[in-house]
Design brief:
The chain is built from 17 helices and 13 strands. It has a six-stranded mixed sheet, sandwiched between helices. It has a five-stranded mixed sheet with strand order 7-13-12-9-10. Strands 8-11 form a two-stranded antiparallel ribbon.
C-alpha cells in the first residue's frame, strides 16, 4: 500500500472532520517525500487537577502520529488557563490563579505519558511566548481579527443576543491559542469538535503571520458511561485516568453495549484488523457483546495500570459481578418509609451504610456504590423498597437492606 494511503487510513479512523482534507494529504505527501515529520500540536489547559478518558481521545490520535514518525507537541496552556476557554460557556468563567494552574499542569504532565511516548513528545508551556509579549505585540495580534468574526462564534452570539456579558479577555482567548500555532509553526492541530472555532482561528492567524496554515483535525466528544451525555466529572459519568484498576474496570463494564465500538476506536490501540473484527462480530451479533466489553475494560486498565493489575481487576470483577457472589454474612439492616421509593442518600445514611449524604455523593461520583449488582450513576437516584436490597460500598463493604413501605 502507498505510504500516504497507509497513514491516511490510520489517521482518519475515528476522526469527525479534517479541515481541509486535501491540504492534509499534501502535507503528508511532502512529509514522506522530504522525510520531514509534521508538527502535530494539541493544547491542554490545566483547569482541573486530573483528566478523564474523554480528555484522552486526542492523546490516542497523537500516539498514532508518533508511531508514524511525526513530531508531537503538547502545549500546556499555563497562560491561557488563567483566562479560561469560553467554549460552551453561557457566562464569564472564573479566572484561576497561577499557583492553581501550575499545580494542575504538573499532574497533566504525568498523566499524558500514560499514553504518549515521553521520548518522542515535546512538552511546552505557552507562557514562554505569551508571557513575554508586550502591549504593542498584543495590539498587533488583535488587529488581525475582527469583532464581527468573533461574534460568529455560537457561544458569543447567544450571549450577545441574550444581553449576557462577554469580557474582552474572552475575545483574546482564541487569539492566544492561535498564536501558539504561530509560535510553534504547527502543521496540524487537533481537538474536540467543541474546539472547531478556536482551531480555525489558528489557521487564519498563521496566514496573517505569513505561515502556511495548519490543518484542523476534529475528534468526537466522548459519551460518558451513562450512554447519553458528554463525559463529565460534574455529571458523574466519567472514568478517571487516576481511578483505581477495579474502579476503572467496573466503570467500563457498566457502559451500554452501543458504546463498545466507539470506546475501542477512540481509547485503545488495538490493531486495525482487530477493530474490524470487533465491529463485524458486534454488528452481525455472532458473539455476546460482554466478551468484547471485557476485552475493552482489560485494554483500558492495562494502558493506565499495566497488564498485571488489569488481570487482577478482571478476576475481581468476575468474582463479584459475573458470578454475583454476595457474602452470606453481610449485615442485615432494616429500612421503612411511607413512600414506595426513597432517595439513595437517605437510604444509605439512615441505615448507617455511609456516614453522610455528601460522602454518598462522593462515592457515587467515584463509581463506588452498587445496588443489586448495578453501579449507581446518578446521585439523585431513587431506590424501590421492594424487599431485599443488596448494597456494596467500594470493594469490601456489603450490606443487605430489607426495605418496606409503612
Amino acid at each position: 500500500m502507498d505510504e500516504v494511503k497507509k497513514q491516511l487510513e490510520i489517521l482518519k479512523a475515528g476522526v469527525v472532520e479534517i479541515i481541509p482534507e486535501e491540504e492534509f494529504v499534501k502535507k503528508l505527501e511532502k512529509s514522506i517525500k522530504t522525510k520531514t515529520p509534521l508538527k502535530i500540536k494539541e493544547g491542554l489547559d490545566p483547569t482541573v487537577p486530573d483528566i478523564h478518558l474523554g480528555h484522552t481521545v486526542t492523546l490516542h490520535k497523537l500516539k498514532q502520529f508518533q508511531d508514524l514518525g511525526h513530531q508531537v507537541i503538547v502545549v500546556i496552556g499555563d497562560f491561557t488557563a488563567m483566562v479560561g476557554d469560553p467554549s460552551g460557556r453561557s457566562e464569564i468563567r472564573k479566572r484561576l490563579s497561577r499557583k492553581e494552574v501550575l499545580e494542575n499542569a504538573e499532574t497533566y504532565k504525568k498523566q499524558i505519558f500514560k499514553i504518549l511516548n515521553p521520548k518522542k513528545t515535546k512538552v511546552v508551556f505557552n507562557s514562554k511566548w505569551l508571557g513575554s509579549m508586550n502591549f504593542e505585540d498584543v495590539l498587533h495580534l488583535t488587529a488581525k481579527y475582527t469583532v464581527a468574526r468573533m461574534l460568529e462564534r455560537d457561544d458569543f452570539s447567544k450571549r450577545y443576543r441574550n444581553q449576557q456579558p462577554i469580557s474582552v479577555l474572552e475575545f483574546l482567548y482564541p487569539l492566544m491559542q492561535a498564536y501558539d500555532s504561530v509560535a510553534l509553526k504547527a502543521d496540524v492541530e487537533m481537538g474536540g469538535t467543541d474546539q472547531k472555532f478556536n482551531l480555525l482561528v489558528g489557521r487564519e492567524i498563521q496566514r496573517e503571520y505569513g505561515q502556511e496554515p495548519q490543518v484542523v483535525m476534529l475528534l468526537p466528544l466522548l459519551v460518558g458511561t451513562d450512554g447519553k451525555e458528554k463525559m463529565s466529572k460534574s455529571l458523574g459519568n466519567f472514568v478517571g485516568v487516576t481511578d483505581s484498576p477495579d474502579q476503572m474496570y467496573g466503570k467500563i463494564m457498566s457502559i451500554p453495549d452501543e458504546l463498545i465500538e466507539t470506546y475501542f476506536e477512540l481509547l485503545t490501540h488495538l490493531p486495525q484488523p482487530e477493530i474490524v473484527r470487533m465491529k463485524t462480530e458486534l454488528r452481525e451479533k455472532t458473539v455476546n457483546p460482554m466478551l468484547w466489553k471485557k476485552r475493552l475494560a482489560y485494554e483500558i486498565v492495562a494502558t493506565y495500570h499495566g497488564e498485571k493489575k488489569a488481570q487482577s481487576a478482571k478476576e475481581s470483577f468476575e468474582k463479584t459481578f459475573k458470578e454475583k457472589i454476595f457474602p452470606d454474612d453481610a449485615p442485615v439492616l432494616k429500612f421503612s418509609s411511607p413512600e414506595k421509593e426513597v432517595w439513595i442518600g437517605k437510604l444509605l445514611t439512615q441505615t448507617s451504610c455511609v456516614n453522610s449524604t455528601s460522602e454518598v455523593r462522593r462515592l457515587i461520583q467515584q463509581g463506588g456504590v452498587y445496588i443489586n449488582n448495578q453501579r449507581v450513576e446518578n446521585e439523585n437516584q431513587k431506590i424501590q423498597l421492594d424487599g431485599e436490597i443488596l448494597v456494596r460500598i467500594g470493594r469490601k463493604k456489603f450490606f443487605k437492606i430489607i426495605g418496606k413501605t409503612e
